[in-house]
From TrEMBL:
Protein name: Uncharacterized protein
Native species: Hespellia stercorisuis DSM 15480
């Protein structure tokens, strides 16, 4: 029994009828595809192709983020927290002073003495 050689062409190569850009699509999806570049042109089949090299199974993506604004916000939050702490300390001191003065009249005697 004679075995046929295995079909190795997994991709269809086509040229866009509008912009001329070459498109390579999987062979089973070749019919009815439009150009990936201009988005509207129909593909004119040129033949089948073999993708050389290893297939990509993973992709690593790096992202650079400008955090300078976040750093400024963090500094402002720290300043606000410091101010709130100082205000809290002042209020606590005032409460102690009011409690101390609440028991005495203007002349320094306690309320229990004046009653």
């Amino acid at each position: 029994m004679i075995q046929k050689p295995r079909d190795t062409a997994e991709y269809l190569v086509g040229s866009c009828a509008n912009c001329g850009m070459m498109n390579i699509v999987p062979r089973h999806k070749g019919d009815g595809c439009t150009c990936a570049d201009c988005g509207s042109g129909p593909l004119i089949p040129l033949g089948y192709g073999i993708l050389q090299g290893d297939r990509v199974t993973t992709m690593h993506v790096g992202v650079d983020v400008d955090t300078s604004q976040l750093d400024k916000v963090g500094e402002l939050v720290e300043k606000i927290a410091d101010h709130v702490d100082r205000i809290t300390d002042r209020v606590a001191g005032l409460k102690e002073e009011v409690s101390r003065l609440d028991g005495a009249d203007i002349h320094g005697s306690t309320r229990s003495e004046t009653i």
